[in-house]
Amino acid sequence: MLANPQILKISTSYEFGLLSKEWNSLLRRSKADTIFLSFEWISSWINNYLKNDQLYVLIVKHNHRTVGIAPLYIHFEKHFGVKITVLRFLGDHSVGSIYLDFIIEKGLEDVVLEKLYQYLGTHKKEYNLIQLKEISSTSNLKEQLQKMAEKSNFRISYDFKTCSRVMLPTTWEEYLKRYKRNHRRAFRIKRRKLAKDHEFSFYQAKIQTNTHDILRTLFTLHQKRWVHRGRPGTFSDICKRNFYFQFVQSVKDLNWIRVYCLEVEGQIIAIHFGLFYDNRLLNLQEGFDPDWMKFGASNVLRGLVIEELISEGVDSYEFLRGKSYHKRSWKAVESKTDHLTFYQWSDLKSLVYIFYSTLKRLAKRNIPTTQMNRIRSKQEAKQTARISKSKDQYLNLDQLYTEIPEKKDPRIPEDQLEDVGT
To answer: If DSSP codes are grouped into helix, strand and coil, which group holds residue 171?
Structure first.
């Protein structure tokens, strides 16, 4: 039992910046230890995506020791003319974060979560509803919050998303045995075809000493691939490029980044950008030159990466969000992340949000597949036509990054500390 715990609410970027050491220290002492909750990942996201939203990070302290962190922010939305404030996880959009959670010291989960829930319950006027996305299926957060909600006025709406991972065996031969004979043969043929016609090399790039060139190559090849398919590409957004650069700069001495390249005659034709954490490789982004599509350059590179990881004894290769035939073809297994929305019947604005979300979900489920495909085809045709007219706009990466201004803020005021009792 924690005696007289204190909760500190962090609402400015300057105050957040003072948390770096204690944040990661607590993360390593928690069951929620993931790179997507690291201080470096979250702070890079804040710099580029918080924008007009507001930090709402809750720090639980006991005897001057941090034992819990609720990494939240307030997001402002408008539906049917009604302004709504939603409390959400930091990093929950635009950068591929999954496995989000409250960061709590092992053994103190129940009592710290109860304190946080108590705090949120007594500060209901500061938000309309709580929406927590991408909670790992192995986390106890969903079950614990459900029990607490039953004792209060909160109701919960549930949803989930699918993610995929390849569990790696001890040898490459054992991995290949997961495939049928003709698939194994086809896989080997692609690699041999490339080796026969061209001299290629596979290597892990040193992003620590060559950050700008490697990221430029990643951005360029990724954009070429998607513009070739008539899509804008994720790196056409300078916020995404800024995020990658700042995150890489902040962790390049921690060996959290793995960049693998496939090079032919001095030219990189495929690149794989992954996060290496807890003996797992998380596949974040990749790119390849569409001129080398007939050689299966992207698949050849992925196969070489998986073979390399197996030789190192890595536990898994993760595709992260989404499911597809392509991911299943690599023998990926699917799991889910939970999405929870807490709302109150007495709050009109939260009901407007739930009504909007329900309409959106019902529309997706009830529109006939043929009609939905027709709508998507028309949208894709318009998008392809627009991109074809202005390809240079999506391929021009002359301005790789923008500078983030220095943060100015006062010291943390002591009166923000709140004694919420035992």
So the answer is: coil
**CB-based contacts of 230, cutoff 8 Å, min separation 6:** 380, 383, 384, 387, 388
Q: Is the pLDDT score of 328 beyond 60?
A: yes
Alpha helices (H) in 37-138, listed in sequence order: 39-45, 109-122
pTM, full prediction: 0.88
Q: What is the pLDDT of residues 232-290, one digit of tens each?
A: 888 988 899 999 999 999 998 889 999 999 999 899 999 999 999 999 999 999 999 99
Whole-angstrom distance, CA of residue 278 vs CA of residue 417? 34
| Band of pLDDT at residue 144, cut at 50, 70 and 90 | confident
Give yes or no for a contact between 261 and 203, defined as CB atoms under 8 angstroms apart: yes
Query: How long a stretch of residues is the chain?
Result: 422
- Token pair 């990724």 is at which residue? 222
Helical packing angle, 141-150 and 109-122, nearest 10° = 50
What's residue 161's pLDDT?
92
**In the numeric block, which tokens belong to residue 151?**
């004792």
Judged by DSSP in three states, 215 sits in helix
Hey, CA dihedral for 144, 149, 150, 155, is it positive or negative? Answer: negative
Sign of the Cα pseudo-torsion (340, 342, 345, 351, in order): negative
Residue 203 is which amino acid?
Answer: Y
Angle, alpha carbons 34-35-36 (nearest 5°): 90
